[in-house]
Amino acid sequence: RSFIFSSDAPASPLVPPPTGSAMIIKGEKFREVYAAVSGDKHQSDDKTILVFVANADVDAVCSVRSLTHIFESDESNFSERPVESYNEIREACLSQRDTDELRTIFLINCGATENARHACGIGDNENVRLIIIDSHRPIWHGYNDYDTNTLVLLDADDPVPLP
Q1: Among 31-35, 49-53, 88-92, which is the least confidently predicted range?
Q2: In this structure, which long-range contacts are made by residues 86-92, counting pairs with CB atoms below 8 Å and at least 24 apart in sequence?
Q3: Where, per UniProt, does this protein localize (predicted)?
Q4: Taking the CB of the first residue and of the last residue of the chain, which one, N or C, has fewer CB atoms within 10 A?
């Protein structure tokens, strides 16, 4: 599943999209999305969260500090990696492709402007939840398609129109 948060899964079934499978929904749904991420850890200690951070981006550094504080407070198993390209993300994802440990990938300030599932090499793998926190615009047009594996969460003041 993919979620995009702008400046807001099935081996153990992933929590279905909140409120009617809308593709663009309000950022207040972050708690529901995080509850799904957090729920994975209760099913096994090995469920992994990968956090990829745009290397040269101050916004990304601040965002990841807040996010990792949440993970640490919640005692979640995660790893954080600064990246400069999708090749680095793809290599890390492919190295864990055949394991059941990888459940959630966070992309911090990368991913909103193109098909991130394809760029990361996870394609249609519904066992991996993809969450994108990105302030870049425009948002890739494919995130507007009706697809329950891709959700776009926006702040109320974001210029992208809600359906």
Answers
A1: 31-35
A2: 86/110, 86/119, 86/120, 88/52, 89/52, 89/119, 89/120, 89/121, 90/119, 90/120, 90/121, 92/50, 92/52
A3: Nucleus
A4: C
Question: Per this entry, what is the length of the chain?
Answer: 163
Fold of the 2-154 domain: Rossmann fold (3.40.50)
Percentages helix, strand, coil for the chain (3-state, rounded to 5) are 30, 25, 45
Q: How do residues 43-77 score in pLDDT, each as one tens digit?
A: 666 667 889 998 877 888 888 898 889 889 988 88
* Token pair listed for 37: 């991420």
Q: Are 26 and 156 in contact (CB under 8 A)?
A: yes
**What does the alpha-carbon distance between residue 64 and residue 44 come to, in Å, rounded to a whole number?**
24
